[in-house]
Specification:
Blueprint lengths: L1 H5 L7 E3 L5 E2 H8 L2 H9 L15 H8 L2 H9 L15 H7 L3 H9 L15 H4 L6 H9 L15 H8 L2 H9 L15 H8 L2 H9 L15 H7 L3 H9 L16 H16 L2
Helix pairs in contact: 2-3, 2-4, 3-5, 4-5, 4-6, 5-7, 6-7, 7-9, 9-11, 10-11, 10-12, 11-13, 11-16, 12-13, 12-14, 14-15
Length: about 280
């Protein structure tokens, strides 16, 4: 590559017109060829060059493929971490989180990617996509970089704690609560709230965490009037019904409350859980 460039090859040349102007740098980023990327950048190729058809650019491509070393190289050469695809609004951090690329997420955040950046066309944000059980380490990293635990999707009214409660993601619920997520928050439009969702889906441990954090077992759905106990009963979750009626779930502030653990201990537990998930 160095020899070709030294003999006058154009580093910004278009490789494939039918693909909408795919360039050498874009291809190198896609394939994860770090050395080629670095050679091109040393020859002043624009690290933010955009495909004029689909709006993709090298940093977005590398982030989506999980090539964190390429992402780092591009950012060191002044690629902008918060650039947005002009065609669909996708940005590097969102695609890295959505595709589960932990190391890429770390690199982007270390280069000052905004953890609360919004997708301008859909209103999506990274934390909302990081609550799945397989992404607890990504959520931990986002929250450690001051991502808000209480952001609300502008169009749907969805928020991270509600999404985690629905999915039964215990680690995500615990992390969000320890970072200040509001356990009684209600979803606009639908009236759903975390404890109701957890009870409806039968997630006993998630329900316990929420109650211990101060969720109200008597809170009612604004439209239906349903309570968490009724939701669990209507869905046939007998064990959860028994726990809600007779369980010794200590409220927030008591010595027995698990959510009163030091944050460092919670983070260590999440790391251990995540390591087990990553090794599966």
């Amino acid at each position: 590559m160095e020899q070709l460039l030294a003999h006058g090859a154009c580093p910004e040349g278009v490789i494939c017109e039918e693909e909408g102007g795919l360039t050498v740098l874009s291809v190198a980023a896609f394939k994860g060829h770090q050395e080629v990327v670095e050679v091109l950048l040393r020859h002043d190729v624009d690290p933010s060059e955009e495909n004029y058809v689909d709006g993709t650019f090298p940093l977005l491509i590398a982030a989506g493929r999980g090539h964190h070393h390429v992402v780092d190289a591009l950012l060191l050469h002044k690629a902008q971490p918060n650039n947005v695809n002009s065609k669909n609004g996708i940005f590097p951090l969102l695609v890295a989180v959505t595709d589960g690329h932990l190391e890429t997420v770390k690199v982007l955040l270390n280069h000052h990617a905004d953890p609360d950046q919004l997708q301008p066309m859909t209103g999506e944000f990274a934390v909302l996509h990081a609550v799945a059980p397989t992404r607890c380490l990504i959520l931990q990293v986002l929250l450690s970089k001051s991502a808000s635990p209480n952001m609300v999707h502008e169009e749907t009214g969805n928020f991270a704690l509600l999404q985690a409660a629905k999915q039964g993601s215990e680690a995500a619920v615990e992390l969000l609560l320890r970072r200040g997520a509001r356990c009684k928050q209600v979803m606009r439009h639908s009236g759903d709230f975390p404890l109701l969702a957890a009870c409806r889906e039968g997630h006993v441990e998630v329900a316990r965490l929420l109650v211990q954090a101060g969720a109200d077992m008597h809170q009612k759905h604004a439209q239906s009037g349903s309570t968490p106990l009724q939701a669990a009963s209507d869905s046939g979750h007998a064990t959860l019904v028994q726990q809600l009626r007779h369980g010794d779930w200590k409220p927030a502030g008591t010595a027995a409350s698990k959510v009163s653990q030091p944050l460092e201990e919670v983070d260590e537990q999440v790391e251990r859980a995540g390591a087990g998930i990553m090794s599966c």
